[in-house]
Design goal:
This protein is an alpha+beta fold. The chain is about 15% helix and about 30% strand.
C-alpha cells in the first residue's frame, strides 16, 4: 500500500463519479464547490487520514468535497503518488552534460 504525506503530488487515475457514497448518503448530498477531480490532473495532498475500509484518504489542496455540509476526503485508490524522479533526472542530466568533453 502506498503511503501518502502532506505535500505529496498525486495524479488522478479514477475520476468516475461513483461509487463515492458513504453509507446513508444520496448523490444530492454532495457538493464540489471547486469542481470534481479530473483524470490525469495533478493535485497536492493537504491532509491524510484513514477511511472506513482502512485505506488512506486524502484531502486535496483547493479541491474540497462535502457530504451533508461536512468536508470529507477522497479515497486514495483514485490517485497515484508522483515520485521525485523528475528532479533527480534533471539533476543527473545536468551533471552528465557538465562532464561532456569540450570540442576543440
Amino acid at each position: 500500500m502506498t503511503s501518502f504525506s502532506i505535500g505529496d503530488r498525486v495524479r488522478c487515475v479514477d475520476a468516475t463519479p461513483l461509487p463515492i457514497n458513504p453509507v446513508g448518503a444520496e448523490p444530492g448530498d454532495f457538493d464540489f464547490p471547486e469542481g470534481f477531480i479530473e483524470e490525469g490532473s495533478v493535485y497536492v495532498v493537504c491532509r491524510v487520514g484513514i477511511n472506513s475500509q482502512g485505506r488512506p484518504s486524502l484531502r486535496l489542496c483547493g479541491l474540497p468535497v462535502f457530504c451533508k455540509e461536512v468536508e470529507i476526503a477522497w479515497d486514495s485508490l483514485r490517485f497515484r503518488k508522483l515520485g521525485r524522479l523528475r528532479r533527480r533526472a534533471a539533476a543527473a542530466g545536468a551533471a552528465s552534460r557538465a562532464r561532456l568533453p569540450v570540442a576543440p
